[in-house]
Amino acid sequence: MPYDDSPPPTRRARPLSVAAALAAVCLTAAGCGGGPEAGRADGAPPRPDAGAASPAPSEPAGSAAPSASPSGSASAKPLPKGPLTGRTVVIDPGHNPGNRDHTREINEQVDIGTGRKECDTTGTSTNDGYAEARFTLDVSHRLRTLLEAEGARVRLTHDADRPFGPCIDERARIGNEAKADAVVSVHADGSTVGNRGFHVILPAAVKGGGADTSKIVKSSADLGARIAGHFVRTTGSAPSNYIGGNTGLDTRNDLGGLNLSTVPKVFVECGNMRDPKDAALLTSASWRQKAAQGLADGISSYLKG
C-alpha cells in the first residue's frame, strides 16, 4: 500500500526537566523498575565512502540539499538563530534501504570494542512490507527539520545516499568526529504480536578494546530519560510492555553504535512493526510527525538543561 512520507508543519520544542520527563514515563506505566534486555540485533550499516548526499525524499529538489562531509550528511542551508544555536546533533537513521541488496557486505564482522558483530542488518518491516529503513529515514528527516528550526546544526549518518551502510562502527565514528552534543539512532522493533510500545536504549558501562563508555553513561541516561518522557506526552504511546520493566528505558552492552560512542548517544525503538496496532501508528505520517516532535522535544530539553 502507498505511504505518505510528506512532513506536516512543525512546531517549536518545549523544555521539560529530567524529573518531569521520568514522571511522565512513570505516570503511564505500571512502575519504574528494570527489565530484561532485548535480543534484537544492532541497527547500523557499511563502508563505501559517502558521496554527495541527495535531497531528502520528502523535500523538493534544490531546496535544502544536504552536503557530504567526513562527519556525515549535513544540511547546507543557513540556520535560524534559536535556543539550540551552536549545538550539534547527529541523527542516525537505522539501517539503509539498500542493505537488503548487499547482504554479503553487511554481514561482515566489525569490532565493537567488546567483541565482533555484523556490520549492519537489513532491519525489520511491517507485515505488509513497510520497511524499517524507510520509516527511520522519514522520521529522521522530520526530526532534522524540527531541530534546525531551533538553530541546531544537524548531521545524518546517511541519507540513503550510499549503496549500503554505514557500518555500526562508522556510525559511532561519525558522531564522535562531529563532537556531537547528542546522537540519536532512530529505529523500530521487530518483536511478536502483542508486544507494544516504545523504548529508549541506553549505553551500559563498557570498557574493552576500543570501547569506553564511562564518560557518557550518565549523560546518555539523562538524554534517554528526557526523550522517553516527551515521547509519551507527544505521541500518546506507552512505554514498551515487553522491554524495560514499563519504564521505556533499557540498558545494553552489545550494541556497537553505543559501545564505540564517545559522545552522549541513545537508540530509540519507536514501536513494534510486527504488532498490527503499533504498525498502524508507524505507517501513519501524522503519527511519525508526532514521533519526530517527541524526539525533538526530548533532545531540546537535554541540550537546554
Could you characterize what this model shows?
By secondary structure, the protein is an alpha/beta fold. It is 30% helix and 16% strand. It has helices at 18-27, 103-106, 132-149, 168-177, 217-235, 256-259, 276-282, 285-304, and strands at 66-67, 73-75, 88-93, 109-111, 116-118, 153-156, 182-189, 199-203, 207-208, 211-212, 249-252, 265-272. The chain has an eight-stranded mixed sheet with strand order 1-2-6-3-7-12-8-11, with helices on both faces. Helix 5 crosses helix 8 (285-304). The chain is globular, with a radius of gyration of 17 Å.
Could you give the topology of this structure?
Blueprint: H1 18-27, E1 66-67, E2 73-75, E3 88-93, H2 103-106, E4 109-111, E5 116-118, H3 132-149, E6 153-156, H4 168-177, E7 182-189, E8 199-203, E9 207-208, E10 211-212, H5 217-235, E11 249-252, H6 256-259, E12 265-272, H7 276-282, H8 285-304
Parallel strand pairs: 3-6, 3-7, 7-12, 8-11
Antiparallel strand pairs: 1-2, 2-6, 4-5, 8-12, 9-10
